Amino acid sequence: MLYRGVIRDAEALGRMLAQARYAAGLTQRDLARRLGVSQRYVWQLESGEPTTFATRLFEAMAACGMTLHAEFGTSGEAG
User: Fold this and answer.
1) Phi/psi class of residue 25: alpha, beta or left (left: φ > 0; alpha: ψ in -120 to 50)?
2) Helix, strand, or coil here: 7?
3) DSSP state string for 21-75
4) pTM of the model
5) For the chain, first and last CA: distance in Å?
6) Where would you tag: which of 3, 18, 31, 34 has the fewest CB atoms within 10 A of its CB?
7) Is 14 exposed, middle or buried (0-12, 13-18, 19+ CB in 10 A)?
8) Tell me: the pLDDT tens digits for 25-75?
9) Phi and psi (nearest 5°) for 42?
């Protein structure tokens, strides 16, 4: 199954990341190890904790009329 979402802010991106991680069978700790970061950092990403970079990025995207889409899962399934 293929999951898709429109990402309008850091919180939505974090939720999508958490869902993809869960679907991949990874814990936050597993993902943190793979990335070489702390589990807390993964939690911060998934919670959509506001950062200056993310806030400005999504503001710039909105100002330019840009839409960000994310997808995960298996696209080869008939549906």
Assistant:
1) left
2) strand
3) HHHTT--HHHHHHHHTS-HHHHHHHHHT---HHHHHHHHHHHHTT--EEEEEE-T
4) 0.83
5) 8
6) 34
7) buried
8) 999 999 999 999 999 999 999 999 888 999 999 999 999 999 999 999 876
9) -60, -45
